[in-house]
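In this supplementary section we document a worked example of the pipeline. Step one takes a protein sequence of length 317 as its only input; no multiple sequence alignment statistics are reported here. Step two produces a three-dimensional model, which step three serialises into structure tokens for compact storage. The input and output of this example are shown verbatim.
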Amino acid sequence: MFSHQPVLLHEAVEALHIRENGIYVDGTAGGGGHSEAIVKRLTGGRLIALDQDPDAVKAAAERLAPYSQAQVIHSNFRRIGSILDSLGIERIDGLLLDLGVSSHQLDTPQRGFSYQADAPLDMRMSREGATAADLVNALTVEELSSLFFRYGEEKFSRKIAAAIVREREKAPVLTTVQLAQIVCGAVPFAARRDGHPARRVFQALRIAVNGELDVIPQAIEAAFERLTVGGVIAVITFHSLEDRIVKQQLAALCRGCECPPDFPVCVCGKTPRARTLTRKPLEASRQELERNPRSRSAKLRAIQKIEQKGDGSHALF
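The serialised model returned by step three reads:
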């Protein structure tokens, strides 16, 4: 059974400023928790729920079956533009992205996302393409080290990569426990006090396998181009790497003139395309943290599209 507790549920739905007859996209449907909360506020309109995980698609489809306005599609949110085209949808009123790995994926050992249970080293959200085992057994020391440092911010990346290559010369590294044991043996004992030593390595491999960071900018830009004036993009992140990307991209959409401060008049002609709805990211309440500890690192950021006028001014509908 697919189990996923939606994070920042109330905050995310409120941030979308849902219009009763609007068209909304939940780019990461998961178990359908956010999607259901959105569709319950629609009297007409439409909800398009996307997910690349076939388990999530099945669960979301079952949960949303009672709602005629909802449609569940098996796809990665990076394809949002082509999906909307295929559905004949020109404009949307909101997009929600709940990034990262789901509780179901973490808690299903055979998916290979967790170092806490022995399973094939898989980590594919879509169940397609190269697995984590493929990367671990094919990349060079330099490539593995770079991957662990870039996507896991792992300061012992070189030592861990070298240990993996030594071990795979004896036998392929094919399971989660194999990899976790190699990582534990490669880092200093003192470093083990800062959570499980394999946590950052597993995060890095998961991000690489699923191309998680690469798809964020293109999806946000594609969705923003389809957004109606007053429409909202809301994004929930779970670690600093993805949050940095989201923060920078949303800020760029809200930024206006980029001329040097000493210029007497604006010559670049740039005006803000959106306004921020969250000057500081929203985080889980104490009650939610008690109910769902995995929400502790969640951050919600949201922007609202504004009207562009020919005189360079801007306004909301």
